[in-house]
Specification:
Layout lengths: L8 H19 L17 H7 L2 H15 L3 E4 L10 H16 L7 H5 L9 E5 L9 E4 L3 E2 L4 E2 H9 L17 E9 L18 H4 L4 H20 L9 H15 L8 H21 L1 E7 L3 E2 L4 E10 L4 E4 L3 E3 L5 E5 L12 H6 L12 E3 L4 E9 L40 E10 L2 E10 L1 E6 L3 E6 L1 E2 L3 E5 L3 E5 L6 E9 L5 E8 L4 E4 L2 E6 L5 E10 L6 E11 L8 E5 L7 E5 L2 E7 L8 E4 L6 H7 L4 E3 L7 H4 L4 E4 L3 H4 L1 H5 L1 H9 L3 E4 L4 H5 L7 E2 L14 E3 L5 H4 L23 E2 L4 E2 L1 E3 L11 E6 L2 E6 L3 H4 L5 H12 L2 H10 L1
Parallel strand pairs: 1-2, 7-17, 8-19, 21-30, 31-32, 31-33, 33-34, 34-41
Antiparallel strand pairs: 2-6, 3-6, 4-5, 7-9, 9-14, 10-13, 10-15, 11-15, 12-14, 15-16, 17-18, 20-22, 22-26, 23-25, 23-27, 24-26, 27-30, 28-29, 35-37, 36-39, 38-40, 40-41
């Protein structure tokens, strides 16, 4: 589920991936991904393997082990039902297999052909979170690290709080903590209680030893220099470590010259250390590199100004060639001379506030940056007209079931997202106290903006379409007995600084027509937007089924394109562009709904109001200040969005007021909540969600109607087994396991080899009104346009307490 927004499916995958990366910024680890699509909750490894081909997922694990080459392998899961989710079980099972397979060149030989080498980790542990008695090793994670000013457990809890879509916010407690592991296997011997890396040779000497005694002597010099740098480091005078770091850098360069293959294990490790040393040398000398683009959303054919600043804030002398920019093939980069006019870009936001004049350096000319100086280089970067906006690489091809299709580009495999679009590199010679060192670094070019409210902010650079054509809805449910025509609107947003003119037409399936046939538009500049509406009409009321309508965009004099490009953007995440066709799916089927006045309390990532409007009813949001009797009495039915009691403190505070409204005759439809719901005693009669909560994850599980005369299943739509066909991902989740006899269960269902579950839909009279609790996953079915789910949901919001009492009394 998604606590923070509307994204589900692949969109939620981008959010969750971004949250993992945000956590890695805090804890410093690397992050890799496989091709397995998170298809939703699974109860067993067997069910998971039906969707995740075993060899495919195993090959991804082996690829990462062979690429990253870890000495110690740790899994969170043991591969048993105690792990909970079927995906957790699969993780434990396949990690064990990968431990053996990664070092076997006969397993997945195509990876060897792609350039990776077999690798065998030395030790293999598993977490004992659910089995503390099995622990063989306790790692103290609650110890204060004096350099960080915090403990590792506190870092872990801070990083956990980045997983906001999963409701994982956590305290950051001080004090003793330990992480417990069980040794599963070891290739280096030793006792089970030995520290994690006992017996494991993590030294650089292991790698350079084949180069002979001379290489080991250079390595000894490298180590001695780093030891001196560590001993001389001062927080207030970091430059004292420069001489030692410079000697370490020189020794490392000598080591690197002895190895020819930069892709081999030695080459990769020496390059990693070179990058770290360059960062350290720049840090102790106070030298900073800033790479800034004047726009973030670039369009095909656009020119953008990129600036590189080098600031010498310390005591060293800095000699360098101009920073170099790296861009995709067919992009052009040109240095801008100091006297060249860069208008209309003007001077930039900092100058707008402070009036600072920055000297511009000559392109292509070496420079010296003395203590306290700042140098600025400017570049004219041109995006080729044929540049294509792109979604994350794993969305470029349709999935194969629950497996993403990776791009053919091998270096992208297992990466979270593509590397940055634009980067810049700096090679400089630093001189201080008679010592010199050459540093080489590469950083991302990012857009720097500033607002009076937020101050300075940075965003990644990406290619966007000149005009994004965004359907106001991606699916439209159209009752066949509804109005003969409906409006279909598209929001057009310009990403082009020069604006755009053009027209939009619709590609319609047979049997449909649109009025007008063509709509023209003019957008003045970047971020200018307009909305174009079309009246859509089927040829007759008998037109039923599923249809696709796609917008076609033509831009005056500059070719044609039409893409729906939207940015998934949250404060704790890097923004990500997602591109798709501007297509609307229309589902037309028979469904009726009573004339009811509907109020809606928004939950987390909830599309319920839009679905109700699709049925032809008006719906009003109930906001935190709307809990007066007068306000509530405007409504016949009030719907609570998913997990509303988690995200609406006002709902908790006013729950008694809401139940009084039900007692006066209103119908309350409560969609699924989690354990907090029954702990809060929010229902009018006892209703218990146990841990773990019953759920039915098989979206095709058989459904038995328990009372085929109930108004909830008869009026205004007679619900039949066919209405439970075509559901997506699951039937429902967090079913109540126990309830008061006042509730009437209406449906029965279960996953294979489990007892029948009757808690998915419960109705109880409360005074003159009705209380409906449903754990059916309407929040997935309604956006997917599942006809039967709409028909059942229409019945629930149509329920009337008086009619319920008449029917149940007659029965």
């Amino acid at each position: 589920q998604n606590l923070i927004g509307p994204e589900l499916g692949e969109g939620l995958g981008i959010v969750r991936s971004g949250e993992l990366l945000a956590a890695r910024v805090i804890d410093g680890a690397g992050q890799y991904f496989g091709r397995a699509f998170d298809f939703g909750y699974s109860k067993s490894a067997e069910e998971t393997f039906r969707l995740w081909p075993r060899e495919v997922v195993l090959s991804d694990l082996v690829w990462v082990i062979r690429t990253f080459r870890p000495h110690v392998l740790v899994t969170m899961w043991g591969g048993t039902p105690r792990d909970g989710h079927g995906q957790h079980q699969v993780s434990g099972l396949l990690t064990h297999e990968a431990w053996e397979a990664a070092g076997d060149p006969a397993r997945f030989p195509e990876q060897i052909e792609a350039g990776v080498e077999p690798w065998t980790p030395d030790k293999y542990y598993r977490r004992t979170f659910f089995d503390p008695e099995a622990a063989t090793l306790a790692i103290p994670t609650g110890t204060l690290d004096p350099l960080l000013g915090t403990s590792y457990h506190q870092i872990a809890m801070e990083s956990r709080s980045r997983h906001r879509s999963q409701d994982f916010g956590s305290t950051i407690p001080p004090g003793p903590r330990s992480t417990y592991l069980a040794l599963v296997a070891s290739r280096v011997g030793g006792e089970e209680a030995d520290p994690l890396f006992t017996g494991v040779d993590t030294t650089l000497a292991r790698l350079v030893e084949p180069a002979g005694d001379d290489a080991l002597a250079v390595l000894a010099t490298y180590r001695e220099a780093l030891t001196e740098a560590d001993a001389s480091l001062s927080a207030t005078a970091p430059e004292r470590s420069f001489g030692s770091l410079a000697r370490a850098s020189e020794a490392l360069d000598r080591l690197r010259s002895r190895f020819d293959d930069p892709r081999g294990e030695v080459g990769r490790e020496l390059e990693r250390r070179r990058r770290l040393l360059s960062r350290a040398l720049l840090a102790v000398t106070g030298v900073r590199l800033e790479l800034r683009a004047r726009d973030d959303a670039l369009v095909p054919g656009q020119r953008v100004l990129v600036e590189a600043r080098v600031w010498n804030g310390g005591a060293a002398e800095v000699a360098l060639d101009p920073p170099r920019l790296l861009a995709p093939e067919s992009w052009t980069i040109r240095g801008i001379a100091p006297d060249e006019d860069v208008a209309p870009d003007a001077a930039g936001p900092f100058q707008r506030f402070f009036g600072v004049e920055e000297p511009v350096s000559e392109p292509g000319r070496p420079q010296t940056v003395s203590t306290g100086e700042l140098r600025l280089w400017r570049y004219d970067v041109r995006v080729p007209p044929a540049a294509r906006p792109a979604s994350p690489y794993f969305l470029e091809r349709p999935r194969d079931g629950a497996i993403y299709r990776w791009a053919d580009d091998t270096p992208l495999r297992s990466l979270p997202f593509r590397p940055p679009l634009l980067t810049g590199g700096l090679e400089a010679t630093l001189s201080l106290g008679g010592a010199t060192a050459t540093v080489r670094i590469e950083d991302e070019v990012r857009y720097r903006g500033v607002t009076g409210r937020d101050g300075e902010f940075w965003r990644p650079v990406f290619v966007a379409p000149r005009v994004s054509v965004e359907p106001e809805r991606t699916s439209m449910v159209w009752p066949s007995a509804g109005p003969p025509s409906r409006e279909l609107a598209f929001r057009l947003v310009s990403h082009d600084p020069e604006g755009a003119t053009g027209a939009v037409e619709l590609d319609l399936p047979p049997g449909w027509r649109a009025s007008p046939a063509r709509r023209e538009f003019t957008l003045a500049g970047e971020n200018d937007e307009t909305t174009l509406a079309f009246t859509l009409e089927p040829s007759s009321a008998e037109v039923r089924g599923e249809f696709d309508v796609e917008a076609r965009l033509s831009l005056g004099g500059r070719g044609s394109e039409g893409l729906d490009a939207r940015v998934i953007d949250y404060p704790h995440l890097e923004p990500r562009l997602v591109v798709r066709e501007p297509r609307v799916r229309i589902v037309r089927f028979p469904v009726l709904v009573a004339e009811r006045r509907i109020g809606y309390v928004m939950g987390s990532g909830d599309a319920g109001p839009a679905a109700i409007r699709e049925l032809g009813l008006d719906v009003e949001p109930i906001e935190p200040g709307d809990w007066s009797d007068e306000r509530l009495d405007r409504f016949d039915t009030i719907v609570l969005g998913v997990r509303a009691y988690e995200v609406r403190d006002d709902l908790i505070a006013e729950n008694d007021v809401l139940l009084d409204w039900v007692e006066r005759g209103g119908t309350l439809v409560v969609q699924y909540n989690r354990y907090e719901f029954s702990r809060g005693d929010f229902a009018p009669r006892p209703l218990l969600i146990t841990r773990p909560a019953p759920r039915v994850t098989d979206e095709a599980a058989a459904v038995t109607i328990l009372d085929d005369a109930s108004p909830a299943l008869v009026e205004p739509n007679r619900i039949a087994p066919r209405d439970f066909e075509g559901w997506v991902q699951e039937r429902g989740l967090y079913f109540p396991a126990e309830w008061d006899e006042a509730y009437t269960p209406l449906l029965e269902m279960s996953d294979a080899d489990e007892p029948p579950r009757r808690g998915s839909l419960l109705v109880a009279p409360h005074g003159d009104g009705l209380y409906v609790h449903t754990s059916l996953s309407f929040f997935r079915q309604l956006p997917a346009g599942v006809a039967g789910a709409y028909r059942l949901f229409a019945n629930l919001i149509s329920l009337d307490g008086r009619r319920w009492r008449e029917t149940t009394t007659s029965q």
